[in-house]
Amino acid sequence: MGRIVIPCEKATKDIIPAVKVLLIRYLNEGGMTQAEIAKVFDITTADVNYYLHGKRGNTELTKKLEESEEFRGIVKEYAQKVLTKKEETYNLCILCSYARRKILKEKQLCPYEW
Which one has a higher pLDDT value, 9 or 33? Predict the structure, then answer.
C-alpha cells in the first residue's frame, strides 16, 4: 500500500516558520514597522515581535537556512519586492520549495518546484 504525501502540511509546521523568521527580519531591517509586517502576513504585531525575538520559528532548521548564503540572498530579493511594493500578493511557495529542495535535499514533489 502506498502513502499520501502532503508537502504543504509538513511545511507549515517547520519550513514556513523558519522562512518567515528570515523574511520578517529582512523586512524589518528594510524599514517596515512591525505593524506593516503584521498586515502583509495577516498576523498580529505580537506574532511579528515573537518572530523577531526568537520566540517563534527559532529552530535548527532556521539556523540551517541562515547558513546558506544563496538562500539568504533569495530571501533578501523577495523582501525587496515586498518593500518596493512590486506586486499585490506574494507567494511564499517559491521560498519554501527552494528551501526544501536545495537546502534540505527533500525529494517530495511540490507543484511549485523551480
Answer: 33
